[in-house]
């Protein structure tokens, strides 16, 4: 089995940098109330090698450091780290192997998004910000058991049907989000919880008015290609 020492200095330098990024981003999950206790995880794939950095399993957020992050290959095998990796490692690895443009994956059990997952419902696209961010509803994926790559397969299968969405709600489990890096996936996780909460509140007031797909496409195109700094 390969170890980090088998890789060159460029890879080891990127591992050090990504460990810091991934460690710090776990604190953003706490900041945005997306996790409790030890639930949830962030990973980021390297550009210099087929490796990823992921949270260790069952370690409290206040105890996470860059050095406690675990380096794995894209089959989920540990390459460097003193802790066991997240129980979702095989699913993160499957996503990276099958979605080559994805370099960040996040899983949370955030309250409102997970409530939609528990009822097996898509979050309907009733907000312009959802058109912007998700290009439609936030989809629900199939029920899968934890501990293998089965959840990752469900994520990939679902997102292939909803290619503009960076999020999927795995039924009876919770949201998984993707991004061009781990920060992008964390942003998607925060946005998923925000729209899940707002759409739940809207349901208490009455029926949600869903936006036409043609208008959603215009919103998404503007947001992805015009909005912000370029």
TrEMBL record:
GO terms for cellular component: cytosol. The keyword Cytoplasm does not apply. Keywords: Metal-binding, Zinc. It catalyses: L-ribulose 5-phosphate = D-xylulose 5-phosphate. Residues 20-200 form the Class II aldolase/adducin N-terminal domain. Its cofactor is Zn(2+). InterPro entries: Aldolase_class_II_sugar_metab, Aldolase_II/adducin_N, Aldolase_II/adducin_N_sf. Its EC number is 5.1.3.4. GO terms for molecular function: aldehyde-lyase activity; L-ribulose-phosphate 4-epimerase activity; metal ion binding. GO terms for biological process: pentose catabolic process. Coiled coil: none annotated. PANTHER family: FUCULOSE PHOSPHATE ALDOLASE, L-RIBULOSE-5-PHOSPHATE 4-EPIMERASE SGBE. Belongs to the aldolase class II family. AraD/FucA subfamily. This is L-ribulose-5-phosphate 4-epimerase. It comes from Bifidobacterium myosotis.
């Amino acid at each position: 089995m390969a170890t980090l020492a088998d890789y060159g200095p460029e890879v080891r330098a990127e591992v050090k940098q990504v460990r810091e990024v991934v460690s710090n981003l776990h604190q953003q999950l706490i900041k945005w109330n997306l996790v409790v206790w030890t639930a949830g995880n962030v990973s980021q794939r390297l550009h210099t090698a087929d490796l990823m950095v992921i949270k260790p399993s069952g370690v409290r957020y206040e105890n996470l450091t860059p050095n406690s992050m675990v380096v794995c290959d894209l089959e989920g095998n540990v390459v460097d780290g003193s802790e066991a990796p997240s129980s979702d490692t095989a699913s993160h690895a499957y996503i990276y192997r099958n979605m080559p443009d994805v370099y960040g994956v996040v899983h949370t059990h955030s309250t409102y998004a997970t409530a939609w997952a528990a009822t097996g419902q898509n979050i309907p696209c009733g907000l312009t910000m959802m058109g912007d961010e998700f290009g439609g509803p936030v989809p629900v994926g199939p029920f899968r058991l934890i501990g293998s790559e089965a959840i990752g397969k469900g994520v990939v299968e679902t997102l292939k049907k909803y290619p503009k969405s960076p999020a999927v709600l795995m039924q009876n489990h919770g949201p998984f989000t993707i991004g061009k890096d781990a920060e992008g996936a964390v942003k998607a996780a925060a946005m998923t919880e925000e729209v899940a909460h707002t759409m739940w509140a809207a349901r208490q007031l009455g029926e949600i008015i869903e936006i036409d797909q043609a208008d959603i496409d215009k919103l998404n195109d503007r947001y992805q290609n015009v909005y912000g700094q370029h």
